[in-house]
Amino acid sequence: MKYLFHLILLLSFTVNAQAQKSWQKINERYLDKVVVISYFEPLLSFEEIEDKERVKRYLTGIIVDERGLIMTSAAIYPANIEFSASANMMASAQLPSDIKVKWSNGKELPAEFIGKDEDLNIAFIRLKDSVSTRPVQFQNKGQLRLGQKIILLHHLPASYDFANIMIERRINALSDEGEKRFYFENNFLSLSDFGLALDERGNAIGYHYMGRERVRRRMPFANVGAGQLGRIVLFERFAPLIKEPPFFKHKATIRKKWLGIYMQPFTRDLARYFGQPELHGVLVSTIIQNSPAEAAGILPGDVITRMNDVPLKADKESDLNIFRQMIRSQTVDTITLEIFRKNHFLLKKVNLRGSPISQFMAEEIANQELGFSAKELTRDVILSRNLEPDTRGVWVSRVERAGWADIAGLQIGDLIKTVNETPIETLDDLRKVLKEIERQKPKFVKMFIQRNGSTRFLFIKTNYQQANRGD
């Protein structure tokens, strides 16, 4: 019995030593491939037309190709740049600046922001210098199983010197609505909610981030209440973005596919009201003017029952995300929708387009002496303000506190119709007028603006001589 005890003890020490050695090898394998990203995020103020303050942030990054492409959290550019009529009219965003990438050996190189994907919660940056990098080699392992062990690799916060941290977890929950989602309990301290996901042998299978979706099933031993749930995104889901990263560029950005409707769940009560208790689909509530849906002849009240022969079912609000994702992820321009209208089924060919540019992507110009900034009207602003669909113009995005424009009564959200009798329909119109004002330096600038459905004149009193006098 004594010898058996010693044998068990020896085996235990051997197993622990092997496990420790295995984890050390895994850590060394990814030491120069999982990096720390630092950047400055402007502190936005609508009372200042320049972002004079900024804060330094840190994220974990994953090197994904040999030319210095690095994948990280979409938090690096927090603006929601997707088209949405419910977007906050007063929101804005500035790109991150002074991005640096730091390796474990202390080497640090500058990088630039490339773009982001809101659906997958990831962004991409690229090293500015022509440096050959060693990327993570992802393996396509297929689906994860409930209870399967995973290893999460990222960094600790600055107070721990950004040390690498490896966390072992299990897949605690699954969700299979639309696409398979894999969740784990996330109750540990880390630099950010993003990092590399490995299988128990140390093979890279994807990335992890904080998830907020509703969970359908969970393991009975999972103490989910102790923290939040994180989500694993497998390589096959984001592999195309490594080959062709999303590219940020004002005005010329290629957006995801867009249908141009507002929709709501086609509940069982609505189905009975329509006299079709067995009918399932998505109910169209509004058609956006000049959209692909309008061009295809889709009408409010239509029920979309199929897309490219795939049945649609939206009995509750969360089901709408499945249809939305199906549209946005299309790789072809033309789709076929089956429509139920007035007791008949119709087939509609729809030519999808890129979603309209949102206010977050729109260019902003500022005039420091008058003390205001403006952006061109975008589709989301037009919808959120209930303006006529063909309304053109620019809107006031910031006003300098106690500046000339502020004293005259100009407010954020005002639509600028004319300046000194010159019609303003585009930012170029405003830019030309402001340039002429700077040249002539008039005592007053006359503005005709629209606010909350009514119009008014504003007279901005200037004081160029005092402004140019200096100290």
Can you tell me about this structure?
- This protein has 471 residues and is an alpha+beta fold.
- 18% of the residues lie in helices and 35% in strands.
- The chain has an 8-stranded antiparallel sheet. Strands 23, 24, 25, 26, 27, 28 and 29 form a 7-stranded antiparallel sheet that branches. A 6-stranded antiparallel beta barrel has the order 1-2-3-6-5-4.
- It is flat and about 75 Å long.
- It starts with a helix and ends with a helix.
- Mean pLDDT is 81; it is low at 81-92 and 212-226.
**Share of residues in helices:** 10-25%
- Write down the overall geometry: flat
| Rg (CA only) | 27 Å
The profile of the biggest β sheet is: 8 strands, antiparallel
Count, helices: 9
Beta-strand proportion: 35-45%
Question: What labels describe this entry?
Answer:
flat; single chain; 471 residues; 7-stranded antiparallel β-sheet; alpha+beta
In short:
The chain is an alpha+beta fold and 471 residues long. It contains 9 helices and 29 strands.
